[in-house]
Amino acid sequence: MTYQPTLQTTIFILLFLVLYLFLIIRKAVKNDIDLYDLLLLSTVAIVPTIFVFFPKIAVVLAALIGVGYLFFVFFGLLFLIIFIYLYRLVLKSNRNHKMIVLLVQEISLLKERLKDREDI
């Protein structure tokens, strides 16, 4: 059971890959996203490209996992990528929240010290 993509599918996937990678690489060059995020986000475009250009890989993965339908493997990989990215965002968000709380506390202490010095 090998799937052969149509010409329209191949062109669409190639355009998506080129445009999407161009946009996120441009963001990475401007330091809007870091290298790890660039790699993780680029897999969202690379996975469909691999499935279109190398459909036997999808068949082998489906057989290894024990899934009967190839799109389950495809969407499963995309969900895995998205969950990894979401997990990373949650960790960053919690780290930033702790840092904000610490900085607010330090600013409050510094304000208190300045107020005490002005009173003297």
What labels describe this entry?
elongated, 0% strand, 120 residues, mainly alpha
What does this structure look like?
Helix content is 86%, strand content 0%. With 120 residues, it is mostly helical. The protein has one domain. It has helices at 7-29, 35-53, 55-65, 70-119. Helix 1 (7-29) runs antiparallel to helix 2 (35-53), helix 2 (35-53) crosses helix 3 (55-65) and helix 2 (35-53) runs antiparallel to helix 4. It contains four helices and no strands.
Binned strand content = under 5%
| Average pLDDT metric | 90
The helix-strand sequence is HHHH
N-end to C-end Cα span:
85 Å
Domain tally: 1
Question: Looking at the structure, what is the overall shape?
Answer: elongated
Computed CA radius of gyration, to the nearest angstrom: 23 Å
Count of discrete alpha- or pi-helical segments spanning 4 or more residues? 4
What's the main sheet like? Answer: none
Q: Would you report the number of β strands?
A: 0
**Could you name the ranges where pLDDT drops below 50 across 5 or more consecutive residues?**
none
Q: What is the helix content?
A: over 70%
Secondary-structure content class: mainly alpha
